[in-house]
Amino acid sequence: MAQCVQSVQEFIQDSFVPMVAVLCSEDAERVTRKNNLSFPELLRPFCRLTSEGHLRDPNNQVVVVKGLRISVTGINTRPPKTTDLHKLLSQVVSVCQPPEGSPANVITAGDYDLNISDRMVKASVPWYSDWKETLTQLSSSKHYTATTPWFETYRENFLQSMPASEHEFLNHYLACMLVVSSREAVPTEQFLKLSQEQHRIQHSGEYTHPKWFIPNTLKYYVLLHDISDGDEQSVESVYEVIKQRYGTQGCYLLKINSRSDATSANEQMPDPWSQYLNKTSIHNPELDEESAVNNAVDNIGTEEDGFDPAARDGLSETHPLQLDQPTDAGYPGNKPIQSVNSAEMTGPQKQASVTPHTTATPRGTCLTLNDHDRIRQFIQEFTFRGLLPHIEKNIRQLNDQLVSRKGLSRSLFSATKKLFGGGKVPEKTIAELKNTAGLLYPSEAPELQIRKMADLCFLVQHYELAYNCYHTAKKDFLSDQAMLYAAGALEMAAVSAFLQSGAPRPYPAHYMDTAIQTYRDVCKNMLLAERCCLLSAEILKSQAKYSDAATLLIKMTSEKRHALRCYCQALQVYKGKGWSLAEDHINFTIGRQSFTLRQPENAVAAFRHIFINDSTQSAVQQAAFLREYLYVYKSMTQLSGESPLPQLPLPCLHSSQTRVFFGHERRLAEGEKQAATHVSLEQEFDRDLSHLWRELEERLVALANRGVVPITFQPSQCCLNSQTDNLRNPLAVMEEPIIVEVVFRNPLKVPLALSALSLLWKFTLKDFSGPHGGTILETISNEKEAASSKENTALNDIIDTQVIPEFTMSPEETKVARLKLLPHKTGELHVLGVVYNLGTGDVGNSEGSLASDLMCVHGQQNLEIQGPRLNMTKEEKTSIRYGPDRRLDPIVTPPMPLLEVFFINFPTGLLCGEIRKAWVEFVNVSAVPLTGLRVASTHPEFFTFGSATSDLTPVTPTAAEHCSAYKTVATPPSVAAVTLVSPAAFGVTSGDRAAVADIPLTGGVLGPGEALQIPLWLRGPDREGVHEINFLFYYESTEKRTKLSHRVLRHTVFICASRSLSVRATACRSNTLHSREREEKNGDMLVFVDVENIHTSEAGVREFHIVQVSSSSRHWRLHKCINPVGDKDSKLASRERGKLCFRVLRCRTEEATSGEAEKYTFSDLNLGSEQIVSSTTPCADFFFRRSLPSEPRRGGVASGSASQMRRPGLTPQSGTDDAVMSIVRKCSEVELDIIVLWKAYVVEDNKQLILEGQLHVALQTIGKEACSLSQKEETQEMVLLKFKPDVPPPVSKPSLEQLSHLIKTCLHYPETYDHPFPQKSLCMVPVTLTLSNCSLAQVDVIIDLRHKTTSPESLEVHGSFTWLGQTQYKLQLQAQEVYRLSLKACFFQAGVYNLGTPRVFAKLAQTSAMCETSQQSAMPALIIINSI
Q: d(Cα 1018, Cα 906) in Å, to the nearest integer?
């Protein structure tokens, strides 16, 4: 509550002071203007008397007047206006507001610091009535104050700006100063003119304003002399003439401007006018009134009041104490404005009538301190010798008139005693009195004379006589039912009673209550009621009756408005303390009170706070809150008309979880047709999978752009969410829908019903066919149509907006809504938010439905998504910056082709290596032809579309249902059939395996609406388990587009692979050299194939049959099966295994000559009656598309690559370690792939089915076993973090195992030899040692025949013999040379001997530093020596 700096008595005395008018001549005004002041402004700082004044009352008692202040103002004949008063009060309050950022005016009460300078609670006086103890302590403390400066300023200006009224005379002029300059030629004539002008204004009847106290107004003649210009002697002579004419009591010579320019430059003079003329803000004293007011007005819109800016309280736009009924019935009629002196105004403008000075313009520059004293002395002379005697004289005259007219006794004191000594007449209540507020008494009426006498006594501080007169007048006015006059008499009687010294009687507060009620309810004069209220509140405060004062203020202004402010103040206490129930109740009450006070925006803002936080209220209470909110909101929208849709708080919209899907929703499976999965809103986002799709797309794009991915490449994203890359605008396609999935959450425990739910958008039309990225045409939006709920056909022709008619949400439910837009034009789209109708969801019948419609409100919520935080540069890391998120800002491109893919007879489970034939249907569902159809996959070994020369019969899925997937030929088992095949025929043309497959189209184009069915062969993965296989189909438009160059279609399948067969194979060198080896060096090998049935399921597959074994290699081919004769049984039941042995020959030289170097030799050995042509689709396709084994292949077919199938040659000059390593490695490499083709017989539903498949075994090294099942990858161990690069590993050297395969040896001798030992004791047998160089370089060979078996076991079994002749040889064999060395073995007796004792050492001829390495010995060579 405001704390007055003055005492209450001083405050009231300053509120009612004698009024003195001023009329100045032009020359006199010119003299005062030298000081940048008007004459009233010149006198204003000196209008309070510093000494006591005296006068006598009608009983001749002396009345002492202390601290009297007079008000000197210029005459203004313009009637006052209520708007002027309101404007003045608003300005002075704004000036007193603290600047933004300055400390607020805070009062500490208990544990809370309450801001009482906030615009929403600045009039919260009644709230503090409950803090009596605190305020009492604060008001009496010297160290703490609780004050609101704006209120003090408001109160002071309000009381001093009260307009003059007919029912009272406190604000009427008692005197008029006529000011004439001494420079006038004839000052007396000028005085006469001013006197006549004053008389005309008061008595002619032309002007209703200003008001004059008595007809015979005191005229005081002031001769103003400018010392710096005038002659002192002549002035004195003129003044003598004036005194003779007007008397010494009625005139005065005022001398000013005694300061010269020379002294003004060196002397600093005080400026007493600043506190009166330069009304400054106490918080910013450097600002003058005008700038302070402007700043205050500018700051109004920026204050934080706890509500939405769009829903500011009406209190923030007007003054907190603005009356509910600003119309003042006490204001006279408005006549044309006529100003006698435009520089001087009275009434509501007198405090605002300041000269437009600025702080840079000094005042009183021509005045000295002596001049100040002269002015002060002038005021005292005027008051003591002119004004007070004039008032005393009029009091006596009025008293005499009243006594004579009413026949009362000589003294009014005795009369009043007689009146109040007898019985009292009962007074009527306010309700019983009729409204006679408009009653006017004539000016000479005795009742007015009593009131006039009372006002004169009150102005000169004779409060006892004033009280008696007011009391007498009150009785008369009530008798006449002149309620306005009676209320005024009651008001001033109460004030007079309070101001009487010694307090002879208690303060009659009921007088004030009756006056306030009369002013407000009967007279409808709120200005006077407010004045009465302010005076009574100050009196009650001085008596420590804070509660009564607060109650009075509440009743006066508005109980509801004060209640609203109290709740706003209380919200400061409860807000943020976790007391959600209390906070909800306060917000609810604020909303209801604001609505009652016709502040719907503020009411909506208060209700909004209840719903934006998680409420802990019960369901019933929440339902009540919601109904109240809907009612208030609907009322606000009806008043606002076609204003923009406001934001709805319910349901909660999780903008960051918004997903955007581009394109049509895919068709489901139709019969045997299985549609491509592609992307849908039902799929969860997987970052790793997204990265995989991106890699596949980059591979396809690079293939379409000559192996280079363009810089402008933007991966296709059909579904955008918070985890996708949204930095760039996504691309949508014209005539294809855009689906926005928004997530709503109902935070309440009651259901919600949404209807007419749709998207808000803005669209910029662009023509992308032109240069420079497109031509902007126009920008349109559906916001206006959404606000009016009207359908616009023109907008639907551009973008068709889907509307969801009903969308219900259960209590505390999170639910998604999918809203669709269908663009028909190209351009840039911006999705702004959602618009819908909100209502309660508890509708049970038709009547409830109607009620729900009445309580349904229309509004919107914005979709505002914050992008990812930037953390790339140093500046971004040291600050908090967020990048854009453009998922809701797609670019709509021209039409593109749209592909749909269907799979027919596509299996979900396969045996490992099983071959199954399916069909794929490609359908172009757009109006644009497509071309460049390709597919990439994470498992290219899983499928094939066949080679360009593959036989596509049968051409339909139905015809191929019971046919074999292989091409077969009826052929009995015989020598292997050999075929040469180029990898290029099966799509293997680069260093990578066929990861991208071109799909053949008729004419290379699939037209609009056309469909194409082609076969697809599948092969079960080699590893058992569930396999996720991804296909990415790529296609382009026949017309090149600048924005969207291609499109993709995703498909993911899961294949469950079951065990079938396990194949292991080993290659060994043959021990013998055949006759053809002269033409075919190193001509044959033996391959042992071990097959095991590892299928574990008892049901289903009964047995496997090995129907054929084929080989594929550039250097080797199967020749024949050398199993024992008659062993043709290749059937394997569960857990059975069998072994096959095959002879392998090196391909003929003509088969591997130039031109055929890139070709593979396929060799087929069928074990049944049918030959499967392995060199055709699908067998050859899967061979070339096979995946790599766990161990890297060396020198063989790496990932189906033809470029790695060439043998590196070695020039004679090549002697590097790498070359040596390569040569040595080639000696033990095989480079042979074995293909085992099988059939399995399965029983399903009492039907026998035949499954077929193929398994691959890659033989890489002689003597090393290879398996069809890839080894499981070992768990990767943790690797230590390294900060230095590893030293490059040294060049590997060939191992002893590898060096032992340089030379192949073979002994030729008779198996038995007969010798007559009795005749000849020595038996010599010729033996041929064949040496074959397996490398591609010259090899130095050392043959040592001196080696003998020393173990006793060998001697017992084989016996001992010796070689005759040269026992050590040193040879040099050329690349792949075969050398035969003739030897002789000498035996001493018959027996069985092992001839495999020669030791062979070899090394490359170019490596001089390398020692010879022992070569692997052949199998034991046994000879039988018989004695005859």
A: 9
- Is the distance from CB of 120 to CB of 305 less than 8 angstroms? yes
Instruction: Determine the Cα–Cα distance for residues 1200 and 1233; give it in Å rounded to an integer.
Output: 12
- Calpha distance 1260→746 (Å, rounded): 67
**CA trace torsion 19, 25, 27, 31 (10° rounding):** 0
Report CA-CA distances (Å) from 394 to 57, 389, 400: 10, 9, 10
* Pairwise CA distance, residues 386 & 178, whole Å: 13
Element holding 805 (H helix, E strand): strand 804-809
Q: Which of 1228, 1396, 1393, 1422 is nearest to 1305 (CA)?
A: 1396
> How far is the C-alpha of 548 from the C-alpha of 536, rounded, in Å?
10
* Number of C-beta neighbours around residue 466 at 10 A: 25
**Contact in structure between 63 and 54 (CB atoms under 8 Å):** yes
DSSP per-residue codes, 1330-1369 = EEEE-SSS-EEEEEE-------HHHHHHH---EEES--EE
pLDDT digits (tens, 9 = 90+) for 1094-1113: 887 766 777 889 989 999 98
- Strand-strand pairing, 909-911 and 1046-1058: parallel
One-character DSSP codes across 161-178: TPPP-SS--TTSEEEEEE
Rg (CA), the chain: 58
> Residue 628 and residue 630: Cα distance in Å, rounded?
6
Residue 644, judged by CB atoms within 10 A of its CB (0-12, 13-18, 19+), counts as: exposed
Neighbours of 263 (CB within 10 A): 11
Q: Which amino acid is at 801?
A: T
Structure tokens at 1408: 């001089």
Instruction: State which amino acid sits at residue 1294.
Output: P
Q: What is the pLDDT of residues 581-621, one digit of tens each?
A: 888 888 888 888 888 888 877 888 888 888 777 778 888 88
Residue 1354 buriedness (CB in 10 A; 0-12 / 13-18 / 19+): middle
Q: Which of 437, 616, 423, 595 is nearest to 521 (CA)?
A: 437
pLDDT tens digits along 1311-1364: 899 999 888 888 999 999 988 888 888 888 999 887 665 555 555 555 688 888
- What single-letter DSSP state applies at residue 1071? S
Hey, what amino acid is at 856?
C
**Closest by CA position to 723, among listed 875, 505, 885:** 885
Phi/psi for 54 (5° steps) reads -135, 145
Number of neighbouring beta carbons within 10 Å of residue 1174? 27
1072 three-class SS: coil
CA atoms within 13 A of residue 822's CA, in its CB half-sphere: 10
Rounded to a whole number of angstroms, the distance between the first and last alpha carbons of the chain is 147
